[in-house]
Amino acid sequence: MDNNIIQKLVESAYEAQTHSHSPYSGFKVGAAVLSKNGNVFSGCNVENAAYPLGQCAEATAIGAMVTGGDKAIEAIVIASPNDEACFPCGGCRQKIAEFAADDTPVYMVTKSGSLHPVTIGELLPYAFRDTALAS
User: Which pTM value belongs to this model?
Assistant: First the structure.
């Protein structure tokens, strides 16, 4: 993937991170999705006093992508609030896999800018796909 595109995604994820609503954990996360159509969608985590009702940054960005009319992920960046890679939770791995092929890059970026690239197939081997649904 082109470094300029990755940098644009990183910047979008960092920008989204600034809007995080995380008063309970203080763990601000941002995400940016590049759609197959070349559009960039971002999102942040949104916590809720009823803890299970919060939403991860990746889910917010994917929701923005779908709302924007796109349905396929080319790449995704997840911005950590510290200097450790912030891997997506299991639910978000499944959400990413819903719209991404196994070889789709997932980049975790730390606060200091260190990138950790993997694929969604590495993060979620044997993902549950729509092909497993009965017709």
Answer: 0.95
> Is 89 known as a binding-site position?
yes
Average pLDDT per block of 10 residues along the chain, 135 residues long? 96 98 97 98 98 95 98 98 98 97 98 98 93 78
Find the angle CA(130)-CA(31)-CA(52) to the nearest 5 degrees. 70
Residue of 58, 84, 98, 122 with catalytic role: 58
Has 109 been labeled as part of a binding site? Answer: no
State the Cα–Cα distance between residues 104 and 74, nearest whole angstrom.
Answer: 6
Place of tokens 């959400």: 95
Q: Is 86 flagged in the annotation as binding?
A: no
Indicate if 58 belongs to the active site.
yes
* Complete domains list, the chain, with CATH: 3-132 (3.40.140.10)
